[in-house]
Amino acid sequence: MAAIPNPRGRSGADRSAAGPASVSPSTAPQSTFQLRIVMPDTATLPTGSANMPNSGKGKRAGNVRRPGNTLPAPGPSFRRLEPTPELLGQLRAESQRLESATPEEIIAWGVENYAPYFTMATAFGPEGCVILLMLAKIAPETYTFNLETGYQFRETLELRDRIAEKFGIEVDLLEPELSVAEYELLHDGPLYQTNPDQCCFDRKIKPLERAAQVMHAWMSGIRRDQSPDRARAAIVGWDKKFGLVKISPLANWTKKDVWKRITDEGIPYNPLHDQGFPSIGCWPCTRAVAEGETDDRAGRWSGNKKNECGLHTVEQDGSGI
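Given the sequence above, the corresponding structure tokens read:
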């Protein structure tokens, strides 16, 4: 059986002999990616404690940067992966093997097999912050990005800066084609009020699709106990929606596991979590959870059957998680 594609050129036997423990900050591959980090103007962004109107906040003045120009450029030999039966079988076997592995070992496996075409998307939730700490120790050169919809809370963007200061990892802000002002002008007002699915698709799914064009694998912080869709997440699997290998190192962790690591290691987290926001997305579609609500995602798209942005929903064949 052929080895899982490895852009770094090591054979399957080499990887097996070295194992995940061989990946460390001193031995991890050094990326040639040249990143330009765009610092947002947070002065006009809403905070979690503010009373938020239906429109007018969350816009950023001077948002003139065009999207796509911070993504790393792949080498001339780069080719996107194809979900051949052989690859899918290998991913299933590796996922089963990694069920008992630590998150650090899972991340190291991803780096070993897919760097430099290995990335992480984060919304700076507690899980993402934990993974960023692990990544800082294992492969700090990894390209990481946030889907900057233009509607994120001020606290979320300020957390990005605190993480950069503490871990040395600067998460890129990957933006949609249109600024919030342009997008709302196009749709005669905030589309999240009338068609939140389309808003999520345009401002989150499409930017991730751009990133997928230059990557082989991506990593997220989803946990199986977060929602019915996420309950089916594999540790490693094929993401049909984006055409990537998807790695979920915290899939079998619990909320308690995550917060214990945050407390034990002093990991920065979003202060909105201390104000009744267990799950944080865009400010127009996120509210604090009321007393007695046990679902952590009850404050997302409140009053709507929607409970996922679409990044982690499952296709009918079980892929796309």
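Residues 78-321 form a domain with the Rossmann fold fold (CATH 3.40.50.620). Try to locate this feature in the token string yourself.
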